[in-house]
Design brief:
Length: 105
Amino acid sequence: MQPFTEKVIKIIQNIPRGKVMTYGQIARLAGSPLGARQVVRILHTQSEKHQLPWHRVVNGKGEIGFRDSEWHDIQRELLENEGIQFNINKRIDLQEFVHESSKSI
């Protein structure tokens, strides 16, 4: 497994309940500021294997990234069950709900 992938997995595993992180934020912490798309790929391929809380990762606007309405609804429900609220524009207030990690993994 590549070091970047290992770091991304560890970062995602450590997002606490009721908080979210963005793809870009995770990429920066893992050492690749331009690696947001790689984070998406890792989530897609490794979430089940590593039991990742995939639902706690959103885009930089605080939106759910899924275009598919079924997966979008599942992710929203999982987040709401953790106390995360969406505004009228279907966005999460990142100032309130983002998990800030002060160090890279």
